[in-house]
Specification:
A: 474 residues; Cytochrome-c3 Hydrogenase, chain B; three-stranded antiparallel beta sheet; B: Rossmann fold; two-stranded antiparallel sheet; iron (chain A); HupV protein (chain A)
């Protein structure tokens, strides 16, 4: 048996800083350690501030999930205030949030994930020349059209949220800008243009047809657009069985309107659906460079171990739900929502499942956005006012592009006493816990083949999670 | 061909995300058309791990010429001056160390965003990681590099400040550098092409401002200077002259300008959405406005506020349209 240790970094085409250490035995990953090597201390920056400042500071945790952080902060403050958005304010918030999530899915597919298949390592594969033409980093024709389509989609932000990233438009009671009839018309035009791009370029077919795919076998027969190219590659390289997860999924539920979340909240453990009790969340610190003990985020603290001592190996804490690591993201959201294609993909739950579920969600969310624009009623109230309590607590649970995001605030004497955040990649890329149980990525990497100093299979698995490392530690 | 290396230091990556919103042309075409070759960017380039380390080593050892170094994000100096709050993964060295190694090789160094320029939000709230900008620590000259430090071209670090930066501020800076042009900068080393404007210029709330017809709550249309913390009359930036994401800006979105292009904007001595006042009078005055004149004009114009403007200021949409005039 041959053994070696391989450190992969800088691990790029993920958002933020990532280092992966692999113990390799007989050409496969025997053990993986995931390190988030950047600590900024946002939770500490917030202590002592006016609670409303969280709406300015927390979006700036992350330039790619900025709206998600806004939405979570607004919900946490709203919970402390006993305030929810007006029905129209909730729709406007959902639209702004969905535009970011869709843009993120598009960015991930084109800029982060697909360029690896254009590498010369794959020359000779029947699809390679097409992958080179479409997805070569900075040069591929698909990359360029995706960047343009994304920029035009984000005109939704210019109309509704002032700018992106880092808006203050999302508030506990709704949104700061009430759209009128002409904004509604313009939003419709922007979304129709984006649908045209999706249907002619990315999917090469009707979104409704893609959303109606019943299972993984039907997905692999999809023949349109760059999606078909990805599926051909996935089939050829066996991406369905690469980087399989543990089958434990969590979603806080996405896009709450007055009819409930548009993608359901819940969990799925080995195929069994369940409800999520946020009170069962603990953040374990045993392998993080953090001092303190495992705690629920309302009782949690963020005190870095500046000596970066053993057995810590990451700034990332290890969140657990009822003691278990959970996978979050588009796949989790879509299986918890019960979509048949996602449930079928989740049986193997590997690279194909994660990327396929993201494409499914992209199509489904476009349809939702179109419905919300149709449901906008200019003239109705888009924001209600409220006041913050002198003392109180609040929990804000949302779904970012990459999965479940939670903010927990404790207000004392009108100031922030504690503020704790668990981001999606905190779940997915968590280090080991006190029981030695690996985080979801660490577990998914075990058994992955390793060839060369920058193993491609490892990169496919890591990027299939679409990590956001700046959110992870915050 | 102009070579460009982009590093992400201690920040959120939002300036890159904003840059990807560049239009007509998009950022990839813009770089190509300007003759700029992107050697490596952490979000956009193919190379990872050992491949990326080889690119950085070649630059640090002078085997590859570096024309422009863009740094996005603040420099974390902690803990205890080691920089280990941000290690450049796979290298065993801090990002701080890498910037110290690479910046002297670059002809031009551009700090992209308020974090890289001044420390920004990364330095907020007691600055838990001892973060600074490349050549400023907040408003004080001297950050990672001393005030006298100069890049290969003999210029100081160019501070394209903003949280995030407008894609045009970055693309135009890069195009001008690639064309060999000198970029005129203001007293905080920000390009004057956008820093000579105030966010107030072109703000759609200007008519409300003229009469001090003020919003009292977010979502109301009135001017946000008096009550809601807006400092667009003091903040530099052409945000309301060239829009964001199609046709947006902070004030167009109905929320106050928080002065994100300025050093230390992250820690105002009050809540961001409150205007500090002394005996009911806002503390911060519009830039270059004499206080006595401001007071006199404000009280006069407030008294003269037309019904239409006063009513619309307290509403979330236009409820009283302009009076129609018939041609004579």
């Amino acid at each position: 048996m041959t053994q070696a240790r391989l450190v992969v970094g800088p691990f790029n085409r993920v958002e933020g800083d990532l280092e992966v250490t692999l113990d390799v035995a007989d050409g496969h990953v025997a053990r993986a350690q995931v390190n988030a090597p950047l600590y900024r201390g946002f939770e500490r920056m917030l202590e002592g501030r006016d609670p409303r400042d969280a709406l300015v500071i927390t979006p700036r945790i992350c330039g790619i999930c900025s709206i998600s952080q806004s939405a979570a902060a607004a919900r946490a403050l709203g919970a402390a205030m006993g305030l929810t958005p007006t029905p129209q304010g909730a729709i406007a918030t959902a639209l702004i949030h969905a535009a970011e999530n869709v843009a993120d899915h598009l960015t991930h597919f084109h800029l982060f994930f697909m360029p690896d298949f254009a590498r010369p390592d794959y020359s000779g594969r029947p699809w390679h020349l097409r992958a080179v033409e479409r997805f070569t980093a900075m040069e591929g024709s698909a990359q360029r059209s995706a960047v343009q389509a994304r920029a035009e989609l984000l005109h939704v932000m210019g109309l509704m949220a002032g700018k992106w990233p880092h808006t203050l438009a999302i508030q506990p009671g709704g949104v700061t800008r009430a759209p009128g009839p002409r904004e509604k018309a313009r939003l419709g035009a922007t979304l129709r243009a984006f649908r045209r791009y999706l249907e002619t370029v990315l999917f090469g077919g009707r979104l409704e047809d893609f959303c109606a795919l019943p299972d993984a076998a039907a997905l692999l027969r999809w023949s349109g657009g760059d999606v078909a190219l990805f599926l051909e590659i996935a089939d050829d390289l066996g991406l369905h069985s690469l980087g399989r997860g543990a089958g434990r999924f969590l979603s806080f539920g996405a896009y709450p309107t007055h009819e409930g979340p548009c993608f359901a909240a819940g969990s799925l453990m080995q195929g069994q659906p369940g409800t999520v009790r946020p009170a069962d969340i603990r953040e374990d610190l045993s392998h993080a460079w953090m001092t303190g003990t495992a705690a629920h985020p309302l009782d949690g603290m963020t005190i870095p171990d500046e000596a970066m001592g053993d057995p810590g190996y990451s700034w990332c804490k290890a969140p657990r739900l009822a003691g278990l690591p959970m996978e979050v993201g588009a796949l989790a959201r879509q299986v918890v929502d019960g979509h048949p294609l996602a449930l079928s993909l989740a049986v193997e739950g590997g690279v194909l499942a994660r990327v396929g579920a993201r494409l499914l969600e992209l199509a489904r969310t476009q349809i939702l956005m179109e419905r919300w624009v149709a449901d906008l009623v200019p003239g109705e109230s888009f924001m209600v006012q409220g006041s913050l309590p002198r003392d109180g607590i609040g929990e804000g649970l949302v779904e970012a592009a990459r999965g479940a995001l939670g903010h927990w605030i404790r207000i004392r004497n009108g100031r922030i006493a504690t503020y704790q955040i668990i981001a999606p990649t905190t779940w997915n890329f968590s280090p080991r816990d006190a029981q030695g149980v690996a985080g979801p990525l660490e577990a998914a990497l075990e058994g992955t083949p390793v060839e060369g100093p920058v193993p491609l299979a490892v990169q496919h698995v890591v990027r299939s999670f679409d990590p956001c490392m700046v959110c992870t530690v915050h | 061909m102009t070579t460009l290396l982009w590093l992400q230091a201690s920040g959120c990556g939002g300036c890159t995300m904003s840059l990807l919103c560049a239009e007509s042309p998009g950022v990839i075409e813009m770089l190509e058309d300007a003759g700029i070759r992107l050697l490596w960017h952490p979000a956009l380039s193919l190379e990872t791990g050992a491949e990326a380390r080889a690119i950085l080593d070649d630059l640090a050892e002078g085997r590859t010429v570096l024309d422009i170094l863009c740094v996005e994000g603040a420099i974390a100096r902690g803990p205890l001056g080691t920089g280990r709050f941000q290690m450049l993964s796979g290298t065993g060295q801090s990002l701080m160390h890498w910037v110290q190694r690479l910046a002297p090789k670059a002809r031009h160094v551009v700090a992209v965003g308020t974090c890289a320029a001044f420390g920004g939000v990364t330095a907020a709230g007691g600055n838990p990681t001892d973060a600074v900008g490349l050549q400023y620590d907040g408003a004080h000259a001297g950050g990672l590099f001393t005030p006298a430090w100069r890049s290969g071209s003999g210029a100081a670090v160019i501070n394209v400040a903003g949280c995030p930066t407008h894609p045009g501020w970055v693309t135009e800076t890069l195009m001008m550098l690639a064309a060999g042009e000198t970029i005129a900068v203001d007293g905080y080393a920000r390009p004057r092409f956008y820093a000579d404007h105030l966010v107030h210029h072109g703000c759609p709330k200007n008519e409300f401002y003229e009469y001090k017809a003020s919003a009292r709550e977010l979502s109301e249309q009135g001017c946000m200077m008096e009550n809601l913390g807006c400092i667009g009359t003091q903040a530099v930036g052409d945000c309301n002259i060239r829009p964001w994401n199609g046709e947006g800006s902070c004030t167009r979105g109905g929320y106050p300008c928080v002065n994100c292009t300025a050093p230390q904007f992250e820690d105002p001595s009050h809540a961001f959405v409150d205007t500090p006042k002394i005996t009911g009078i806002p503390v911060g005055l519009p830039t270059d406005m004499p206080k006595a004149w401001f007071m006199a004009l404000a009280s006069l114009s407030k008294a003269a506020t037309p019904h239409r403007i006063g009513t619309n200021a307290r509403s979330d949409r236009v409820v009283v349209p302009p009076t129609l005039r018939k041609p004579r």
